[in-house]
Write a structure and sequence with these properties.
The complex is a heterodimer of chains A (about 475) and B (about 650). Chain A has 24 helices and 2 strands. With about 475 residues, chain A is mainly alpha-helical. Chain A is elongated. Chain B is globular, with a radius of gyration of 27 Å. The chains are: A mainly alpha (about 475), B alpha+beta (about 650). Chains A and B meet through helix 1, strand 1, helix 2, helix 3 and helix 4 of A and helix 1, helix 2, helix 3, helix 6 and helix 9 of B. Chain A: It is found in: Cell envelope.
Chain lengths: ~475, ~650
């Protein structure tokens, strides 16, 4: 309403200014000015100047002067033009002003969006982040929390939520820092300390560091804590003290309700541990399920899994960029008791996906699930380091192509999980196009278009990208 | 709210333009002074309104309001502020808004400074301008509205073509539009002359300042665009006979003819038809240029055919305005009586020859630009008309034009004495031929084409200086008198001498760089020296740095001549991650005789880089010449007789007794 009053008032003022000549009467205008005369006068002056400068003779000057005067006479005769008089005419003025105002207002009503406020970027950051955080976007929640914690660094709640959010996206080293703050602010509350130590462990590639082990022990000193018991056992296993680890985990199972949330994890680790030790699983888990017994003994039906393994190996030899295939292969091999072969499968998957952190994280998770991370370090394949990526410069062309393909496949996998990333899609399309895989590029475009169907700017970007990189 | 107010202001500008196009014409027909004066107030409101709209759009870019579609598609939050602002006109919608704002600006200036123009003429001129404006306001509001909002604004924009993120090209469109749109005044004066039936020296004088402003702006705009292409595109070239360039060059050629033709109207009341036709054609070519650049027809005829809304709209406006103007010309031109008669040997004839040559040159460019488009529309065949066509057709005609420009000032008005003219021309020929021979023998320049070009450029320079000497009274007066006389020359004469000298200098530069350029393209490792002409270029190192919104690799290149260090060049290769595009920034050192020019190309992965080294003789002369030509227009503008807005009435009373 305010806006409409503003533009209505503006149009009216403008309309009145437009019509102003009809409001002021009594003006008399000559239809022709002395313009023409002044031209001729200047020309005569110039003749005199030229003559004085010796550029033309007196005779030439006189001739020219006569001609100019003749023309001036003709012009003067035509200057009979009448006078025109302005008459006041409020009626015309009013209708002109109204016409102008109505045209402007009507036109604006046609194409304008008067309810739409300005949306400068500066005022939109919090709003956008909140909207996306509410829709479940962890990164936006993190950005918001970073804003909050830097504005108010003494709020335990904010640090605590921030640390948990970092954990949720797998950014464990950032989560360690946030937990440390939370621990300080909470005055070493055991639950917080325990979460902090877990984050340290996860940030350390699921190897319990000494500091974390000390923290867990401190937590246990102050009261029971399942997490601390689990990780201390894990630390023992990682120190090759398998029997002690098995004992602790078994005790944990005994003390817990059968439907406790941590039970599947602990039982899985027991089963894996039993498999390494070639022990009898029922000794530790009297209620072991048939499946657990099978996993622990490597007693899957060999014929079936053998053919599955062979199929997978063939298809992976053709196209190594199928991380789900590799994980399945590792799972099958581990199920057959071939732990080293399983670890090798994951190692190969890692090398195909060097440079794609998202996939590497998935592979790590698989390794943890299969207990392969408990194997002695010699078998543990090194993850890709910055040095590896830098070394890509020294690779042969084939190797480099492989690595790039790995990165691209990693990006594709990541976008499948978190598709709300226009830049990611564009980079994916571009990468496929560069690698000559037009089919995949088109497929990626159509998937991205489906996802961003209601966002014109993103669609335009996608189409422009498609037009530049794809040949018809 | 500011954005929506800007949107509303654009409609208000349209409303003002509608009033401005109707009421003044009604007033002129019915002798209503108030009706005619509405032209003035409407022109002021129109400019104010469109200015507010433009300011609102600029603000949206500055604060990155991505709820505007054009901002979301063409800007980015990390762009430097300068390019946020210039990004406003680096896209279709914004540049069209700039176009109409320029149009409104000229209208307002005429309403404020054109008080000496009789009200009926001024009202008609402003009405014609407003009619053009109405068409373009509708075009913007209905097909290219910069104020279209998006419901869910993205968090960041798509960015701006990094090639355009450059100070040179940032101010190229406003200057170009100053020219394009400024010629609308000439068009409006021509139509007003046809409508009112009044064409006389005064008419030419009223029109002249506006044409001079437009022409200077266009000259500067073209030179700036050429300069940008030279240092940004990294090929050492400055003119590519690209349709976009031709689109600005054609109105310049015809506009130059108009500028000269209008002198004849003012001085001799002759060539009236020519002048009116040239005024119509100049702006028509500006419109055609706008159509070529803005309809998308150039990037692809198919894209144009598939999404024809904008193109068809502009094409419709084009046909309407040009068709109506030419029809009016055909209908009313017969009523105009030519004034002064002139002999074959006269300044008038010289200027007529100049007009014919410039029009022919423009026609040649027109054919070469539009023929491929028409052919593709009709037969679907894609052809390119490139430099060879233009070199063979345009250059000879333009060479003749320059020769004529040299002789022209020798001719006196109405009736010149052929013997005197021929004697002076023979002297010009002798001096320029001797100088050219000096170049060939003394400096050892070989190419006949280059020497011919050098001769023509020298001819124009010699003739211009010769005429200046003559006007000063040399050799009959002593040096002191001569100097006094030179400084006493009217500003319009200074315009002539500076403009023609500038043209000669620019032409010399073009000839030099086209014929005698030296270049070397090679993959080199740091430390390798390459000989380019007399210079040795050595790449010493490359290093990576980060700019505000790009990453860059900067090379250091030492240039020496016979072992003496001359310059250090720093060409760059930039990468703009938002837009995903690279740009090259040439490293250039201008010496008085030419440019040392280095471009850094792709690395080959083994520590070596592709480099392109050039020695471009004459290039600094081109820019100097361009500046002089543009300046010549502005200097003429300050001529006493053009001082717009000067109270002419008072001059009458004081000057009359003196006569």
């Amino acid at each position: 309403m305010l806006f409409w009053s503003l533009i209505a008032a503006t149009s009216l003022l403008a309309g009145l200014w437009l019509a102003r000549p009809f409001l002021r009467g009594g003006h008399v205008d000559m239809d022709a000015s002395d313009g023409a005369m002044s031209v001729y006068r200047d020309q005569i002056e110039e003749l005199e100047r030229d003559h004085a400068a010796g550029l033309i003779s007196a005779e030439e000057r006189d001739q020219a002067r006569q001609e100019i005067e003749r023309r001036a006479l003709v012009a003067a005769r035509r200057m009979d033009g009448g006078l025109s008089v302005s008459r006041r005419s409020p009626a015309i003025a009013a209708s002109l002003a109204a016409l102008a105002a109505l045209t402007a207002l009507g036109g604006y009503a046609l194409t304008g969006v008067p309810t739409e406020p300005d949306r400068p970027l500066a005022s939109r950051r919090a709003e956008t982040l909140e909207r996306m955080a509410a829709a479940g976007d962890v990164n936006s929640r993190i950005a918001l929390l970073i804003d909050k914690t830097s504005a108010n660094p003494t709020s335990f709640e904010d640090w605590w939520t921030l640390a948990q959010s970092y954990s949720a996206i797998g950014n464990h080293s950032a989560s360690v820092d946030a937990y440390r703050k939370a621990v300080e602010l909470s005055g070493d509350r055991p639950a917080v300390l325990s979460a902090y130590a877990e984050a340290m462990t996860l940030a350390n590639g699921n190897k319990v560091p000494d500091a974390a082990r000390l923290a867990f022990e401190q937590v246990l000193n102050r009261g029971p804590d399942v997490r601390a018991r689990y990780y201390i056992a894990l630390a023992k296993a990682q120190a090759q003290d398998f029997d002690a680890a098995l004992e602790d985990w078994t005790a944990l199972v005994r003390d817990s309700q059968p439907d406790a949330p941590w039970m599947p994890l602990v039982r899985r680790d027991i089963v894996n541990m039993v498999r390494f030790l070639n022990a009898d699983v029922t000794e530790y888990l009297p209620d072991a399920s048939p499946q657990e017994i099978a996993s622990a003994g490597g007693a899957l039906v060999p014929a079936e899994s053998a053919s599955q393994i062979a199929d997978l190996e063939r298809s992976l030899a053709d196209d190594p960029h199928d991380y789900k295939g590799w994980i399945e292969l590792a799972t099958l091999r581990a199920g057959n008791g071939e732990n080293e072969a399983a670890a090798n499968a994951l190692a190969e998957a890692r090398s195909s996906y060097a440079g794609a952190p998202f996939v590497l994280q998935k592979i790590d998770e698989a390794a943890r699930r299969l207990g392969l991370d408990l194997l002695p370090p010699a078998v543990e394949p090194a993850g890709p380091s910055q040095a590896d990526i830098e070394a890509a410069a020294d690779m042969s062309e084939g190797e480099r192509d492989d690595m790039i393909e790995g990165m691209v496949a990693g990006l594709a996998a990541k976008l499948e999980d978190a598709p709300n990333n226009p830049d990611g899609w564009i980079m994916l399309v571009r990468s496929y196009a560069v690698m000559g895989q037009d089919e995949k590029a088109r497929d990626a475009i159509s998937r991205a278009e489906a996802h961003f169907a209601d966002s014109t700017p993103v669609l335009e970007r996608l189409r422009a990208e498609a037009a530049t990189v794809l040949t018809e | 709210m500011i954005t929506e107010f800007g949107h509303f202001a654009l409609w208000l500008a349209l409303a003002a333009a509608v009033v401005q196009s109707v009421v003044p014409l009604w007033g002129a027909r019915n002798g209503s002074a108030a009706g005619m004066r509405v032209a003035d107030s409407a022109a002021q409101i129109q400019f104010l309104a469109v200015g507010v709209a433009f300011a609102a759009l600029v603000r949206a870019y500055v604060v990155s309001d991505f709820s505007l579609e054009t901002v979301a598609l063409n800007s980015h939050s990390t762009k430097p502020m300068l390019y946020k602002v210039t990004g406003v006109w680096a896209n279709h919608e914004g540049s069209m808004l700039l176009w109409v704002m320029m149009l409104a600006l000229f209208g307002m200036l005429i309403s404020l400074f054109g008080r000496m123009i009789p009200v009926a003429m001024r009202a008609t001129v402003l009405a014609v301008q407003a009619i053009i404006g109405v068409g373009f306001y509708l075009f913007i509001l209905l097909t290219s509205n910069p104020f279209v909002r998006v419901a869910n604004p993205p968090l960041d924009g798509r960015g701006m073509n990094p090639l355009l993120q450059d100070p040179g090209v940032a101010f190229h469109p406003p200057l170009l539009y100053l020219g394009y749109v400024g010629f609308s005044t000439a068009f409006a004066f021509a139509l007003a002359a046809l409508i009112t039936g009044r064409v006389d020296p005064a008419w030419a004088r009223w029109m002249r300042p506006w044409v001079l402003i437009a022409w200077s702006g266009l000259t500067a705009g073209i030179a700036l665009g050429s300069w940008w292409a030279y240092y940004e595109l990294g090929w050492g070239g400055f003119w590519f006979w690209d349709p976009v360039e031709n689109a600005s060059f054609m109105p310049w050629l015809i506009g130059t003819a108009l500028l000269h033709s209008a002198i004849v109207v003012e001085k001799r009341n002759a060539l009236l038809h020519w002048t009116i036709l040239l005024a119509i054609l100049t702006f028509s070519l500006s419109l055609i240029g706008t159509f070529l650049v803005r309809s998308g027809i150039l990037s692809s005829v198919h894209a144009f055919a598939n999404d024809p809304e904008r193109g068809i709209f502009i094409l419709g406006l084009l046909c309407l305005y040009i068709g109506a103007a030419l029809t009016l010309f055909a209908w009313r031109a017969g009523d105009l009586r030519e004034g002064g008669v002139f002999a074959f040997w006269s300044r008038e004839s010289g200027l007529l020859v100049n007009n014919v040559l410039l029009s022919t040159a423009s026609g040649v460019v027109f054919v070469g630009t539009l023929y491929p488009l028409v052919l593709e529309l009709v037969t679907g065949d894609k052809i390119t008309v490139g430099a060879p066509y233009f070199n063979q057709t345009f250059l000879p005609i333009f060479g003749l034009t320059m020769l004529a420009a040299g002789i022209g000032p020798f001719l006196s008005w109405k009736r010149a004495r052929p013997a005197v003219v021929l004697r002076r021309a023979a002297l010009t020929t002798a001096i320029s031929a001797a100088l050219t021979a000096g170049l060939a023998v003394g400096v050892g320049l070989g190419e006949p084409v280059g020497l011919l070009g050098a001769f023509i450029a020298l001819w124009l320079a010699v003739a211009t200086l010769q005429d200046l000497g003559h006007r000063a009274g040399l050799p009959n007066v002593n040096a002191r008198v001569a100097v006094r006389r030179v400084f006493g020359l009217p500003r319009s004469a200074w315009g002539l001498y500076i403009g023609h000298t500038g043209l000669s200098i620019a032409a010399a530069g073009v000839v030099a760089v086209s014929v005698w350029k030296a270049e070397e393209i090679r993959t080199v490792s740091p430390g390798t020296a390459l000989d380019v002409g007399p210079y040795a270029f050595t790449l010493t190192e490359t290093r990576n740095e980060t700019g505000p919104n790009y990453q860059t690799t900067i090379a250091t290149i030492e240039v020496s001549r016979d072992g003496t260090p001359i310059a250090t060049l720093h060409p760059e290769r930039r990468w703009y991650p938002v837009e995903g595009r690279p740009t090259t920034e040439a490293g250039i050192r201008s010496l008085w005789h030419g440019d040392l020019y280095a471009v850094l190309g792709d690395p080959d992965g083994a520590g070596r880089n592709v480099v392109r080294y050039y020695y471009n003789p004459g290039v600094p002369w081109m820019w100097l010449g361009g500046v002089m030509i543009a300046l010549a227009g502005l200097i003429s503008l300050t001529d006493r007789r053009l001082r717009i807005g000067a109270p002419s009435r008072r001059r009458v009373s004081t000057a009359q007794p003196a006569e």
